[in-house]
Amino acid sequence: MGEVFLPGNHRYFGKQFMMWRQEAEMSREEVAEAVGYSAEMVRSVEQGRRACPPRMAEIADELFGARGKLKDGLSYLTREKYPARSRDFMQREAEAVAHSSYESTLIPGLLQTEAYARALLGGTWPPADDEVVERRLEVRMARQERLHRKPMLSFNFIIYEAALRCPMGGPEAHKGQLLHLIDAAKLPNVILQVLPFENAVSSALGGAMVLLEMPEYKRVAYVMGQSMSELADDPAEVNRLEQRFRRLSAQALSPNDTVRSIERMVETL
Length: 269
Description:
This protein has helices spanning 8-23, 28-35, 39-46, 54-64, 69-72, 87-95, 114-121, 130-143, 161-165, 171-185, 235-251, 255-267, and strands at residues 98-103, 154-160, 190-195, 209-213, 219-224, 229-232. It is α/β, with parallel strands linked by helices and 269 residues long. It has 2 domains: 8-76, lambda repressor-like DNA-binding domains (434 Repressor (Amino-terminal Domain)); 84-267, 2-Layer Sandwich (Endonuclease, Chain A), CATH 3.30.870. The protein has a 6-stranded mixed β-sheet with strand order 3-2-1-4-5-6, sandwiched between helices. A hairpin with a 5-residue loop joins strand 4 and strand 5. This is XRE family transcriptional regulator.
């Protein structure tokens, strides 16, 4: 994959940052030490590949003697809601009329509690800035409004048991997340199934996927990995993933048995 560049106003800001730095006769390494970020981060900001954190801009403005000119430039930057690799998917998800997903290691974003999501987003490596975590958390919580939209949309979630056993965020957050799943399973437009360990098939270990039904019956699929994700609209590929999803659904517990299984997990906490 090639380098990912942010919108033009970020690149313009980065150019201004570099010009102010050069006029102050400071190296990237010197700036990095002063602002508490790496020299590579400074380079990425100057090249428009990374958004400039407000704290970096504020400290650099004083370092460079920019008298507020650099710091004020932050207000003109476009803040992207989503990471570049998931932006196309989020746009398709917003237009979809039906959503089916399988998760092997995590609770689906649409079903995460705030405590679970905060622990997940705040535990990435390399670490994300607090501001980035809060922004992504806000967006993730806002996405969940789709579950309650009128007219109702259709949702079908399959979650591998491993995701339910992981106490993300600690014992209280874990218990709250399981109770939240029970509540979500009661929504009339939501089908929730758990794939237990004893029913696992090889495809259960192949990673997460989302299947979206778009208006006019077009279908797309989104497959997620550690650092790469793929949005597919080729009918043959989407059909292959739909068959895999149906296989997982057949091996998973029924919706009623799923709720009872999660209730038993809660009782043991």
